[in-house]
Amino acid sequence: MLLESLVQLMPDINKAFFETLYMVGISLLVAIVLGLPLGVLLFVTDKGLFLENSVVKGVAGRIVNLIRSIPYIILLVALLPLTNLLTGTTIGPTAASVSLSVAAIPFFARMVETSMREIDKGVIESAIAVGATSWMIIKDVLLPEAKPGLVQGLTITTISLVGYSAMAGIVGGGGIGDLAIRFGYYRYDNTVMITTVVVLILLVQVIQLAGDSISKKVDKR
């Protein structure tokens, strides 16, 4: 009976799985494109750094902290008007990607800032001493030196997005969370609930193992 139920569910599980990958993929791409430069900005404008600017640091830091302090489920609902404006709908994986992206940007930005704080200040000072421009320091010193930390930060961000994407199912965002709620919770189907939990656990484990492996390979220390 259990096996038969799983076989019947396979098309829905496959669809939900790829919807989750789609949502996480879009939001992760947005996090890299916008969160990486934001994280660099937070670091280089800090006190004692080569682009020190208390105003920029203060404004950017407060915006990041504000968004990060909002629980995702509240952020998801609050962004429904923006989601509708950008995608023309408030349901489905594309719509859910809007709130996921907004949540991912400040999260990854802080990860970037933290990874760069682990860089030996002497390396930065040496680059300044030989006349390197700000862009050269960022491109040739900060990013290469922080690469292992950036990979780990990206891994943590991805895992967090998987969890957030499951919550997006509450408002019809699609993906594994939506499947668990519609078929598992509303229909009291424990088979669906257990299966979706197992799929999420396996997905997170694969992401973590891949992130750890890549981080070790790029770590030249």
UniProtKB/TrEMBL annotation:
InterPro entries: AA_ABC_Transporter_Permease, MetI-like, MetI-like_sf. Pfam families: BPD_transp_1. The keyword Hydrolase does not apply. One of its GO terms (cellular component) is plasma membrane. The chain crosses the membrane at residues 20-44, 65-85, 91-109, 121-138, 150-171, 192-211. GO terms for biological process: D-methionine transmembrane transport. It is found in: Cell membrane. Its main location: membrane. It is a multi-pass membrane protein. Residues 17-211 form the ABC transmembrane type-1 domain. It comes from the Bacteria. Keywords: Cell membrane, Membrane, Transmembrane, Transmembrane helix, Transport. Belongs to the binding-protein-dependent transport system permease family. CysTW subfamily. This is Methionine ABC transporter permease.
